[in-house]
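Propose amino acids for all 523 sites.
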C-alpha cells in the first residue's frame, strides 16, 4: 500500500527509483522532501476492493453520521492549518499565503458545505406528471460506489480533497491517484480523515505515474473524476468508456479577461494581476489573455506593470513572499518555449521574462507582462500555465467577445466594467463554464457553485448541487396512485386510435377554443 516515507537519498523529481519509490523535491529549494512507495497493479486492485468493502456500510449510514466525520475532519484541518500549509508550500512551491487561501481554507469550507448541504441536495426529487397525474414519480440519488480521483500537481490538496468530500457525503468511497510530483499531501490527508473517524479504506490513495492512473480506471471503480491536461483527459475518457463508467473531466484553460472602458482600472489591474500570477500562474482558471479597450490600454498596462514589478518572489515558505516557485521543470520548459516564440514573433516584454534555475534545483519564473502579442503566438493560443500576462486591445464589444471566444478552451472568463447590465450582456455571450464580473479565480472556492468547462476544457461538473448529483446514480421510481384503464394497450383498434388522438389534441391544443374543439369536434 502507498505510504509516505522520508528517505535521505537523491533522485530526480517525479522519477521512479529502482527501489520502486517516487521522490519529491521542494520546488522552492530543491531539497528532498520525502518519497512514497509506488503502487503495483495488485496494490491498486486491493485498494479499490478495500474501498468497496468499506463503502457498503458507509452508504447505509444516515447523513448525520457522515456529516459528523466530515465536520470533525474540517475542525482538525483548521487546527493544523499551519502544518498543512507548511507541507503544501514545500511540496508544491506555492507561497505560504496561497497554501492557506487557495488550498487549506477552501477545503475546510468545501467540507463544511458538503457536510451541511448534501442531505438536502440529494433528497428525493418529485416529478409532477402532467399527463399521468394518477401516478407518482420521483428521483432517488444512490451513491455510485467507488470513485476514482486522478488529480494534478497544481492544487494537490484542494482539488482531490474537495471532490472526495462531496463523493463521501453522497455515500461513496474514493481512491485517489495524486500527481507523481505532489504525492505526499494525500497521505497526510488520508491520515487526517482516519483520525476524524472515517472508516479505514474508505479514502484510499494509490501512488505512481500515469500507468497507475490508467490501472485505477481498469480496477473496478464506478466513476472517474480526472483533473489534468486535455491530452491525458482524452485518453482517460476513452479508457473510462471501455469500462463503461461515468467520467468527469476538468481540463485546461486559456482564460480571457475583457476590460471595458468604464472599468475601475485600479481594481481591474489588481485582480487581473492576481488572477494571472497567483500560484505562479499554474491555475487552470488563470487569466492567460487580457483584451483591453484601446481607450484605456495605456493606463491599465502601466498599472499592471507597476504591480508586477512590486511582487516579491523567492523561497515560498515565508509570509512576505508574493510569488513562489514553479512546481515542475516540465512546466518551466513550456513557459520558456512560449516566451521565446512570443519574443521571436515581435512581442514586447514590459517587465519580467527571466527564468531562474538554481544549481540545487529550485525554479522561478518572473511575473511577466507582454504587449504586441498576436493570435498566432503560442502564448495567446496554448495554455501557458506560468506567470505570463499578454495584454491586447479591441475596439468594439463584439470584437472583444469574438477574441475572447477564439479559443479551443472554455473554462472561465472575466469581465471588468462598472456597468452591471453590460457585464451580464457580455457574460451571456462568452463560451465558458464560469464567467466572473470584476473578479478572477475565486469561485473555485465557492463550493455551492458548479465548476467545469465547455469545449476542450472538459466534460461534466464538480462542486455544488450538480457535482453532488454527479457522484450518484439517479434512479427514477414511478408508482401508481390510482388505477385507470389506458387506451394504448392491446387489442389495438380504430376506437383507441381516435381516443388517443382526441386526448392529446385536447391537452396539447392551442388556446382554450382549440382545446374545446379538439375535445368535442370531429376527429
Ligand atoms: P496531466 O494530464 O499530466 O496529469 C494529471 C493526472 O493524470 C496525474 O495524476 C497524472 O499522473 C495522471 N495520468 C497521466 N497519464 C495518465 C493516463 N494515461 N491514465 C490515467 N491517468 C494518467 O496534468 P498535470 O498534472 O500536468 O496538470 C496540469 C493540467 O491540469 C493543466 O492543463 C491544468 O489546466 C489542468 N487543471 C484543470 C483544472 C480544472 O479544474 N479544470 C484544475 C487544475 C488543473 P502523473 O502526474 O503521475 O503522470
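Proposal:
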Amino acid at each position: 500500500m502507498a505510504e509516505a516515507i522520508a528517505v535521505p537519498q537523491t533522485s530526480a523529481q517525479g522519477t521512479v527509483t529502482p527501489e520502486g519509490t517516487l521522490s519529491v523535491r521542494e520546488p522552492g529549494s530543491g531539497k528532498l522532501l520525502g518519497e512514497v512507495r509506488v503502487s503495483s497493479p495488485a496494490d491498486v486492485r486491493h485498494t479499490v476492493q478495500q474501498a468497496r468493502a468499506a463503502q457498503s456500510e458507509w452508504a447505509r449510514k444516515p447523513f448525520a453520521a457522515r456529516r459528523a466525520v466530515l465536520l470533525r475532519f474540517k475542525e482538525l484541518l483548521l487546527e493544523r492549518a499551519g502544518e498543512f500549509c507548511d507541507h503544501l508550500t514545500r511540496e508544491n512551491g506555492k507561497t505560504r499565503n496561497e497554501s492557506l487561501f487557495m488550498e487549506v481554507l477552501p477545503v475546510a469550507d468545501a467540507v463544511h458545505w458538503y457536510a451541511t448541504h448534501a442531505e438536502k441536495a440529494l433528497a428525493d426529487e418529485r416529478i409532477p406528471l402532467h399527463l399521468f397525474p394518477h401516478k407518482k414519480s420521483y428521483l432517488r440519488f444512490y451513491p455510485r460506489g467507488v470513485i476514482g480521483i486522478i488529480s494534478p500537481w497544481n492544487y494537490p490538496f484542494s482539488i482531490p480533497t474537495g471532490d472526495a468530500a462531496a463523493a463521501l457525503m453522497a455515500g461513496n468511497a474514493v481512491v485517489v491517484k495524486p500527481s507523481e510530483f505532489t504525492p505526499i499531501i494525500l497521505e497526510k490527508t488520508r491520515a487526517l480523515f482516519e483520525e476524524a473517524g472515517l472508516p479505514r479504506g474508505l479514502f484510499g490513495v494509490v501512488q505512481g505515474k500515469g500507468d497507475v492512473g490508467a490501472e485505477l480506471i481498469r480496477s473496478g471503480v464506478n466513476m472517474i473524476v480526472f483533473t489534468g491536461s486535455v491530452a491525458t483527459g482524452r485518453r482517460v475518457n476513452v479508457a473510462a468508456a471501455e469500462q463503461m463508467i461515468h467520467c468527469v473531466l476538468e481540463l485546461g484553460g486559456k482564460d480571457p479577461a475583457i476590460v471595458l472602458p468604464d472599468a475601475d482600472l485600479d481594481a481591474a489591474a489588481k485582480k487581473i494581476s492576481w488572477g494571472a500570477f497567483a500560484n505562479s500562474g499554474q491555475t487552470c482558471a488563470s487569466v492567460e489573455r487580457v483584451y483591453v479597450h484601446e481607450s484605456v490600454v495605456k493606463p491599465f498596462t502601466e498599472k499592471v506593470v507597476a504591480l508586477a514589478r512590486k511582487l516579491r518572489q523567492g523561497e515560498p515558505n515565508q509570509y512576505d513572499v508574493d510569488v513562489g516557485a514553479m512546481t515542475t521543470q516540465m512546466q518551466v520548459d513550456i513557459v520558456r518555449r512560449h516566451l521565446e516564440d512570443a519574443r521571436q514573433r515581435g512581442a514586447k516584454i514590459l517587465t519580467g521574462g527571466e527564468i531562474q534555475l538554481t544549481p540545487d534545483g529550485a525554479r522561478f519564473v518572473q511575473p511577466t507582462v507582454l504587449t504586441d502579442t498576436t493570435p498566432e503566438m503560442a502564448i495567446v493560443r496554448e495554455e501557458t500555465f506560468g506567470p505570463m500576462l499578454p495584454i491586447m486591445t479591441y475596439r468594439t464589444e463584439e470584437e472583444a467577445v469574438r477574441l475572447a471566444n477564439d479559443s479551443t478552451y472554455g473554462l472561465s472568463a472575466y469581465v471588468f466594467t462598472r456597468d452591471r447590465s453590460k457585464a451580464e450582456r457580455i457574460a451571456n455571450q462568452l463560451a465558458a463554464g464560469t464567467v466572473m464580473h470584476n473578479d478572477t479565480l475565486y469561485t473555485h472556492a465557492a463550493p455551492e457553485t458548479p465548476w467545469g468547462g465547455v469545449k476542450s476544457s472538459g466534460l461534466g461538473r464538480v462542486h455544488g448541487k450538480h457535482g453532488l448529483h454527479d457522484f450518484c446514480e439517479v434512479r427514477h421510481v414511478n408508482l401508481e396512485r390510482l388505477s385507470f384503464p389506458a387506451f394504448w394497450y392491446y387489442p389495438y383498434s380504430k376506437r383507441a386510435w381516435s381516443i388517443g388522438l382526441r386526448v392529446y389534441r385536447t391537452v396539447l391544443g392551442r388556446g382554450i377554443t382549440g382545446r374545446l374543439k379538439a375535445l368535442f369536434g370531429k376527429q
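The pocket of NDP is lined by residues 150-155, 159, 177, 179-180, 209-210, 213-214, 227-229, 232, 235-236, 250-253, 284, 383, 385, 411, 453, 458 (CB under 6 Å). The chain has three domains: 40-252+465-474, 255-406+412-449, 493-520.
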